[in-house]
Design a protein that fits this description.
Two copies of one chain form a homodimer.
Chain A lengths: L11 H14 L12 H8 L3 H13 L3 E4 L3 E4 L3 H24 L4 H12 L5
Antiparallel strand pairs in A: 1-2
Helix pairs in contact in A: 1-3, 2-3
The first copy, chain A, binds a DNA duplex (30 and 30 nucleotides) through helix 2 and helix 3.
Chain lengths: 123, 123
DNA sequence: TAAGTGTACTAATACAATTAATACACTTAA
DNA sequence: TTAAGTGTATTAATTGTATTAGTACACTTA
C-alpha cells in the first residue's frame, strides 16, 4: 500500500502523506476505513513510528483523516475536504503552467502534454 | 532583476538558478550578454558570494551560461540548451498532471486551468 | 487486566544550506 | 607594470531540518 523511495530526495513523512492523500482522493481508501496503526506501519516500512505519526498528523490537519485515541486513524467522511485538496493540486499545476508559459514554451506543446497524460483524443 | 523570497522554503541558490533560467529561456537575457559578477550580485542581494557562485556553477552545468576567468559569466549562445531545459520543465508538468489525474481530478478541470493560464479562447 | 492504540516530549545524529574568510589565477584599463 | 575587478577553490563554522531513539501517558477493546 505504501512504498518508500529512498532515491526520492523528499522526506519520508512527505512521501507517506502524498501516497495516502492520493489513495483517499481517488477513492481507493473509502471513508471511515481504518489506516494502519503508526506502530504497525513503522515496523512494516522499517522506519520510526514518529515518522508515521508526523505524516498522520499532517493528514489530520488537512482534514483527510481523523484519529481516535486508543482505536486508530480513519479516512475522513467529508467530501468537501477532498475537493479542497484537489484544488490545491490544481493550484500547483497552475504554477507549473505559469513557469512553462514564462519560459517560452508554446501553448500547443503544453496541450499535447495534457492530451498524452489523460489519453484523451476527442478534443 | 533578481529577487530573493525569504518566505520561499527553497534554498536561495535554487531561486537564483530558476530566475536566471527563466530570463534566459524566454529571451529576456540575450545570448552572450553578461551576467552580474558573483561579488556584485552578492552585495546587491546582501548574501554571500559563494551562494551566487553555486547558482552560476549549476547554470553553467546546464549549459545555459559560460564563464571566462577574469572576465565574467555570459549567457550561452546555443539554442539546443534552451530546448533541453524547456523539455525538462514539460516533464515536471507531466508529473504534476499525472498526480492530478490519479487524484481523480476531471480532465475538463485541468483543461480549464490550462486555458486560463495561457488565456487562449480559440480551442 | 493486558494488549494495542494515539499522543507528547526530549535527546541525539546526520545532512544540507549558508556564511565567512582566504587564496589563487586571469583580464582589463590606467 | 600595476591596481581593480573577475572567476574559482578550499576550509571552517553556524544554522535548520529530517530522522531516529527512547520514554511516558491516555485511551479502547477483548
Amino acid at each position: 500500500m505504501i512504498v518508500i523511495d529512498y532515491h526520492d530526495k523528499r522526506p519520508i513523512y512527505e512521501q507517506i502523506i502524498d501516497r495516502f492523500q492520493l489513495l483517499i482522493l481517488n477513492g481507493a481508501l473509502e471513508p471511515d476505513s481504518q489506516l494502519p496503526s503508526v506502530r504497525a506501519l513503522a515496523v512494516d516500512l522499517s522506519i520510526n513510528a514518529n515518522t508515521i505519526q508526523r505524516a498522520y498528523s499532517e493528514l489530520e490537519r488537512r482534514g483527510l483523516i481523523y484519529s481516535i485515541k486508543g482505536r486508530g486513524n480513519f479516512v475522513s467522511a467529508q467530501k468537501d475536504v477532498v475537493k479542497e485538496q484537489q484544488d490545491k493540486l490544481l493550484e500547483e499545476l497552475r504554477q507549473q503552467l505559469v513557469i512553462c508559459k514564462e519560459s517560452g514554451i508554446e501553448f500547443i506543446k503544453v496541450l499535447d502534454c495534457v492530451r498524452e497524460t489523460f489519453q484523451e483524443v476527442n478534443l
